[in-house]
């Protein structure tokens, strides 16, 4: 259904280097803990772009900022995943790095140590209205809201998108950083966004409600479509103040949950662009999330594209 010329998905967000350390059980303070360690490309924005391309959308573009140290490697990796990167090279700051500590127990939960580096130094000068030429949807990584420079870029991008009638989606990205930014400020900054894709923790934080369904419903009074990611419990789709669908998770045996939410978002957007209903698009997101946790790192396998479930994406 996605014929050539059907339009582009433009993702604006973070591109970082992930160092994934998979260990079992508690870290041993003051001594060694055995771990399997890999260095892989990552970043929430970059991961979303790669999963959207992997899930079948033909024209996926990415605007991000990296240091000179990792620019060539990241460009190669993004291109191999089917993404058209536009990477701004920061002359002063290295590429962002995230240490992902993954407990290899049953849940494969992870803890992040984040050095944002160049990734949050995207600034209005890196934006051009021409970036929206041929674009049918703009997606923003919520990490961009956590620095003054990149917040200004978000404002410029939103203004450009409104002027052109391009719909905008956003993933809040980090409950920890979101708490520091403040709920009221966050909601003011995302005015004009039409799709919000929070995690369960982010949805509850943004509303002060303990129940994720209540939280998603309340958020959908502020944003037209809210898709709350629930991990092993699937996803909630809310519109106009009510939960419209509860989408079950796809069963998976997790090895590493890094990037599972990004995979969901990328596949969801690819399906939404095809024109399916949000609940069916969320089901595609759940399939991608299951695929993501079965591997290590936040990216799909390079060089392949998937047709998943009932949705034919190319």
Automatic annotation (TrEMBL):
The keyword Signal does not apply. InterPro entries: Carboh/pur_kinase_PfkB_CS, PfkB_dom, Ribokinase-like. GO terms for molecular function: kinase activity. The keyword Protease does not apply. Keywords: Kinase, Transferase. Residues 293-314 are annotated as: Disordered. Residues 9-301 form the Carbohydrate kinase PfkB domain. This is Carbohydrate kinase. It comes from Streptomyces avermitilis (strain ATCC 31267 / DSM 46492 / JCM 5070 / NBRC 14893 / NCIMB 12804 / NRRL 8165 / MA-4680).
